[in-house]
Amino acid sequence: MRVDVAWWHLDGTPQTIDSMRAHLRENTLDHWTKVPGLRLKIYLADREQNRWGAMMLWEHERPPLDQMPPNAALALIGRPPDVRVTFEAEGTVEGLYELATLQALGPAFADVQVIGGPIGAEGM
Q1: Model pTM?
Q2: What pLDDT, in 10s, does the model give residues 53-62?
Q3: How far is CA 62 from CA 22, 58, 116, in A?
């Protein structure tokens, strides 16, 4: 599996973590539910460093851009991510945390959404 992580620093932009979260809830999540090979997408908020990001877990390689929704964060913030990291994931375990458990941890996890089928104990 492949993991992509992208971070945008929000200093100097009109966006805030709260405005990004509001846009996410209103416009973004449903667009990602049918992306081929996407197992998990988590939006990330780091108030301490005033940055917004996303983490995506892919079955294999990320699909071509024409098979993915537009990058809403790129459009709202107006520039590519400040940091992008891609690496291989060697395994996952299903059921380690239930979605409701993650969401109950607080506002930082309120927007977690599992996309795609069950993850299972792959690669272990």
Answers
A1: 0.70
A2: 999 889 888 8
A3: 26, 6, 14
